[in-house]
Structures are given as C-alpha cells and as structure tokens.
TrEMBL record:
InterPro entries in the cross-refs: DUF4351, Transposase_31
Protein name: DUF4351 domain-containing protein
Residues making up the signal peptide according to the UniProt record: none
Organism per entry: Castellaniella ginsengisoli
Occurrences of domain DUF4351 (ranges): 174-228
Domain Transposase (putative) YhgA-like as annotated: residue spans: 1-117
Amino acid sequence: MALRMISYAGLSYQTLLNGRQISLPLPPVLPVVLYSGPRRWRASRDMAGLLDETPADLRPYQPQMRYLLIHEQTLMSSAGLPGKNLAVLLFRLGRSRDVEQWRCLLHTLIQTVQQEPEHAELNRSLTLWLHCIVRRSAPPAEQLPPVKTLQELDMMITEKPGLWAQQWLKEGRQEGRLKGQAELLLGMIQRRFGPVPDNVTLRIHAAKAQQIKAWSLNFVDAETLEDVLRD
C-alpha cells in the first residue's frame, strides 16, 4: 500500500501540473487509508518498511512516504469522537442499510462539509464515492442522473426514494442471516472448547456462508478448535 500511495501522489501532482491547476512549490498531501476489514492491518505504513537493508550513505536518496491508517473497528469503538467526525460519517454511510438513516447521515455530512468554503473539492470527491454506492445498489435497468454535489445527490434520493431501498433490504436480510449463523457457531465453540480467541471470532465473522456451513459440519465430530476450522 505504501508503494501505491507514493505512486498515486506522484501521478496526482503530475496531472495537476499538466492541467495548470497547481504550480511550484507543490502543496503538501495527507495520504489516508480507510480500512474496514475484520483482520488486523499488517501492511507496512511507510516506504522504508518495503526496502531492503540500505547502507547509511544511500538512505537520504531513497523514496519516502508514510500514510495515515484509519481502522473502522477501532474508530467506531472510540466513544469520544464527535458525531460529525468525517471518517465516522463515511464508515456509517458505507455500512448503513436503512434508507432513512442513510439520508440523515448524508445531511450531517453535508452540514460538516459546508462549514468550510475550501471543502468544495472534498464535496465533489465524496459525491462521486457516494454516487457509486447508490448506483451499485440500484436496479440494473435504472439510469441514475449525474450529480456534482452532495446536495444534488440528496435531491436525487429524495425524488427516487424506492431506488435502492429494496436492494438494501435484501442485502440487509442476507447479512442478518449470515451474522446469525456466525454467532451460533461461535456459541457452540465456546460451549465445547471455552472462551473463543479474538482472532477466531474475527475470522468467523469475516467468513462467507459456505465456509461457516463447512465449519459447522466440522464441529459435529471435532475434538479441538483446530478441527473445527480445518479446510
């Protein structure tokens, strides 16, 4: 990821320079990775961690970049964060399957972005991302109009409230069944083998339905936790 980040930054600078949108000196950047996976992030957070052992006299000439990692589970469990924290809002929008809650979060996001006039570019970027989320959830035959701002996106959703509600309802039911299967398997494991390690809990919650079914069958004659989780 560190290598991709340094490539993205270089390409962004080059594109902006070619389009005469910026000039030297170049503005600073803050590379950010929003991670929502269940497993612990293990990739190196800077270029130095990707390079082989470098002689001291060559180190000043090596590429350098570090990115900020924002882990969803850690962030969402932090009770001290304000409700209008931008990262929290983005994670909640990405996870929500309730249409009214989604619109409420969108309104909060609009208010947060509007507070600063220099957030115009951020408004456009967030609009593109959220428009993609809505488009993926809409019926295949539905043609979505292009939107340029969060306000236009809100108007589009208001005019077509049923556009994605049914699809999200279906996905929510599927996710609910899968979560129930995972919790049932974890309960059986705990009853037979004792407390379940955190890494096992994360692994089971991240598994697909077919994998949980296979582990549940393994549980029938398993003598150890390892027997349950064998492939």
